[in-house]
Design goal:
198 residues; mainly alpha; two-stranded antiparallel ribbon; 4% strand
Length: 198
């Protein structure tokens, strides 16, 4: 897969997540909250796939679509070997913690580079997205506490924190023209373009 194909596939999944989100709100029904959360989880999963695939492509010797180049510390023609090196005999690798993500890109790519710059620029949003994702996907007390603190800090007061969908459907306090779902999906869409080009 080329970087262009990786980017196009990610943009397609963003469209699918937006469509599912919109569908779940029109009309509002029993499916709405579960559907909004499913759209968000799907978005997050595809963000993780996007990050992994761009790293594989760059280490495989591909160049960014346009803009400032990114130089890998080494290139390997065999994509399977690239994955073996990235995975280091693990069953999976962490793509949710933005600090770990940045360290992985720094380990494999010359710095500074536009991927790290983009991740630094959207650091707050990435932390927010991870807290929402963890609250939906896990039942731990820590995930719940971090999510509740996030919602209170973003919405103020003592908002309903029983479902992530309530927060995701809430109007962004920084931009009354969008919800938090819109904010986070837009952030990832712009980030993808900033990282490898449009």
């Amino acid at each position: 897969m080329t970087l262009q194909q990786v980017r196009d596939k990610f943009i397609d999944t963003i469209t699918e997540s937006r469509d599912l989100y919109t569908h779940c709100l029109s009309p509002v029904g029993l499916h709405t909250d579960s559907g909004v959360e499913a759209a968000f989880i799907q978005l997050h999963k595809n963000w993780e796939v996007f990050l992994e695939e761009i790293l594989v492509c760059l280490l495989n010797g591909q160049t960014v679509i346009n803009g400032n180049p990114i130089t890998p510390k080494l290139t390997i023609a065999d994509r399977n070997l690239v994955r073996t090196i990235i995975y280091q005999d693990k069953n999976y690798i962490e793509w949710t913690d933005e600090t770990i993500i940045k360290k992985r890109f720094e380990r494999h790519l010359d710095v500074p580079n536009r991927i790290i710059d983009t991740l630094n620029t959207i650091s707050i949003e990435l932390k927010d997205i991870t807290k929402v994702r963890n609250f939906i996907a896990h039942s731990s007390g820590t995930a719940k506490e971090k999510y509740e603190n996030l919602v209170r800090s973003r919405l103020g007061g003592n908002p309903n924190t029983t479902r992530a969908s309530f927060f995701l459907k809430s109007t962004d306090r920084d931009d009354a023209n969008q919800t938090y779902f819109d904010k986070y999906i837009g952030t990832l869409e712009i980030a993808a373009e900033n990282m490898i080009g449009a």
